[in-house]
Amino acid sequence: MHDTASGGLVDVTPADGVARLYVCGITPYDATHLGHAATYLSFDTLVRVWEDQGNEVQYVQNVTDIDDPLLERAARDGVRWEDVAERETDLFRSDMTALRVVPPTWYVGAVEAMAEIADLVVRLVELGAAYSVDGDVYFSVAAADRFGSVAGLSRDEMVRLSGERGGDPDRAGKKDPLDCLLWMQQRPGEPGWDSPLGLGRPGWHVECCAMALNRLGNHIDVQGGGADLAFPHHELSAAEAEVATGEQPFARAYVHAGMIGLDGEKMSKSLGNLVFVSKLVAGGTEPGALRLALLGRHYRSDTAWTPDLLAAAETRLAAWRDGAARGAGPSGEQLLSGVRAALSEDLDTPAALALVDSWAATDGTDQDAPDLVRDVVDALLGVRL
Ligand code: 5CA
Ligand code: ZN
């Protein structure tokens, strides 16, 4: 897999037959859009490849079910933030089921993990890696000697991105603008949880850090998410993990999916330029075609979404179905090994799809091939022919 930290390919085959994967989950304040779907499909392909190789996959995905955007959405709509979180989490799960995304082993909400998150903050305080600003607890990046090694950005770039992506580089009293919140004291009108640090709620990065360490151990194979999470989120959760455990690296590979955009902008809840999975599916779009539309690009490439992608995927799916409905075709074993080889090289789904295209378009005499190809497409690409 391509690793953002080293900038090159890293072998993520687990030594002990157990692959450990953490993929950052949604912040459930709005419905699943195609950007989310694309990112989770990328890691779904990784899960399928690992399992095909005979590994057990231990996979944690979180839900950021308490955060500022949820409180803002709930206030705007005059509803409880808990109800927003529950409704959108349910919708996300049903979208993922429709898309045949293999569910994670653990699916954990920040709210249900409050105690373990607070424990990790306490550990970082005891290690001298944290300090207080007006009662709020901050992680000191100076405590992490490898801070900066995940995203590899300049300091200016880090300060800029931290301001854009949930950080508070300008807050007075911090030792370093890049230091991040570990625990925020309860604000008036906001929820808070009891903890040794006082009534409050955790910072974002330490949530994912605690959930990963407590279920997968001190070393994981892949930390995943969209490219917008490389900094500050994955940089800081890795820094916190390495300081807390005294071990490194937290992840063998930091894997980032490209962004799906619409009309020249990243598709995002805050920009409001969204295409929803649930709406497409309710409107009759076949989830298998949606999968092929998203798997037709390499997962790392930023992609502009257009309805043409879906139309092309529908045509492709029909051609594959015609191919699999024949009594015989070109060698199925050869197709299988080709698809395996393509996917093991940084999930090259465009190459894998092209192999199936050519299998379906070519005559052959292998009578076992149609069944085998149906299985290959089902197991590795998640599409039923
Ligand atoms: N809850 C945090 C992670 S702990 C979060 O980033 N939530 S999110 O709902 O904003 O995004 C969920 C996942 O979808 C993240 O991995 C994010 O990188 C990815 N994502 C968001 N927008 C896009 C997009 N336009 N294209 C591709 N992936 C996206
Ligand atoms: Zn996360």
Short descriptors:
Four Helix Bundle (Hemerythrin (Met), subunit A); binds zinc ion; binds 5'-O-(N-(L-cysteinyl)-sulfamoyl)adenosine; Rossmann fold; 385 residues; 2 domains; alpha/beta; 13 helices; globular
What does this structure look like?
- This protein is α/β, with parallel strands linked by helices and 385 residues long.
- It has two domains: 256 residues, 3-Layer(aba) Sandwich (Rossmann fold), CATH 3.40.50; 120 residues, Four Helix Bundle (Hemerythrin (Met), subunit A).
- Helices cover 44% and strands 16% of the residues.
- It contains 13 helices and 14 strands.
- Strands 5-4-3-10-11 form a five-stranded parallel beta sheet, sandwiched between helices.
- The radius of gyration is 22 Å and the shape is globular.
- The relative contact order is 0.15.
- The site of 5'-O-(N-(L-cysteinyl)-sulfamoyl)adenosine has 21 residues, from helix 1 and strand 10.
